[in-house]
């Protein structure tokens, strides 16, 4: 029996063109692979910070590597609500508290709360998008600058209307 390939090995084999993802595991693995491939920026938009996707070792390792290799905020996350993730001890929330100059999390404004989708974008190049955030069906593409830029533009507009999240403040006693 051959050994299971590591995520780093799969990075060389990223599929060409759009791929359809139909399970939480497929979305998690693809998102982790995207995070390991990010070199400049990683953006996440969603209702919540889905732990089955974003609180996994490979994904967090990619985020950590990106954040430590950049001199400014390179990971930005826009959420409807962070309370559930904060209470559950989501590791990405904890990482953001330690790397405040590299990872920023903000709350979506009321104007954007009617959106139904969720997405991740890296480097204006790759993306994973669920048209309905509450489902585990997505489309991903590792090399689609056009669609990635459109999602990034949406993200930027929402970011400009968003606000810092009070839940993210760490109390030092």
Can you give me a brief rundown of this structure?
With 173 residues, the protein is of the alpha+beta class. It contains seven helices and eight strands, in the order H-E-H-E-H-H-E-H-H-E-E-E-E-H-E.
Secondary-structure blueprint of this entry?
Elements: H1 7-11, E1 19-21, H2 24-37, E2 42-46, H3 51-54, H4 57-69, E3 75-79, H5 83-87, H6 91-98, E4 103-107, E5 118-122, E6 126-130, E7 138-141, H7 145-161, E8 163-164
Parallel strand pairs: 2-3, 3-4
Antiparallel strand pairs: 1-7, 2-5, 4-8, 5-6, 6-7
Helix pairs in contact: 2-4
Tell me what you see in this structure:
The protein is of the alpha+beta class and 173 residues long. The protein has one domain (17-165): Endonuclease, Chain A, CATH 3.30.870.10. The chain is built from seven helices and eight strands. It has helices at residues 7-11, 24-37, 51-54, 57-69, 83-87, 91-98, 145-161; strands at residues 19-21, 42-46, 75-79, 103-107, 118-122, 126-130, 138-141, 163-164. An eight-stranded mixed β-sheet has the order 1-7-6-5-2-3-4-8, with helices on both faces. A hairpin with a 7-residue loop joins β6 (126-130) and β7 (138-141). α2 (24-37) runs parallel beside α4. It is globular, with a radius of gyration of 15 Å. It starts with 6 loop residues before the first helix and ends in a 9-residue tail after the last strand. Residues 1-12 have low confidence and may be disordered.
């Amino acid at each position: 029996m051959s050994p299971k390939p590591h995520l780093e090995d799969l990075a060389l084999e990223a599929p060409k063109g759009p791929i359809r993802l139909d399970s939480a595991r497929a979305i998690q693995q693809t998102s982790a692979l995207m995070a390991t491939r990010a070199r400049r920026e990683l953006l996440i938009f969603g209702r919540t910070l889905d732990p089955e996707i974003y609180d996994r070792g490979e994904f967090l390792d990619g985020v950590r590597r990106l954040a430590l290799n950049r001199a400014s905020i390179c990971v930005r996350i826009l959420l409807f609500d962070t309370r559930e993730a904060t209470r559950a001890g989501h590791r990405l929330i904890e990482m953001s508290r330690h790397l405040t100059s590299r990872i920023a999390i903000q709350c979506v404004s009321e104007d954007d709360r009617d959106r139904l989708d969720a997405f991740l974008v890296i480097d204006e190049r790759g993306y994973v998008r669920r048209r309905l955030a509450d489902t585990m069906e997505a489309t991903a593409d590792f090399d689609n600058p056009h669609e990635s830029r459109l999602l990034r533009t949406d993200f930027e507009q929402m970011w400009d209307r968003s606000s810092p999240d009070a839940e993210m403040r760490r109390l030092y006693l």
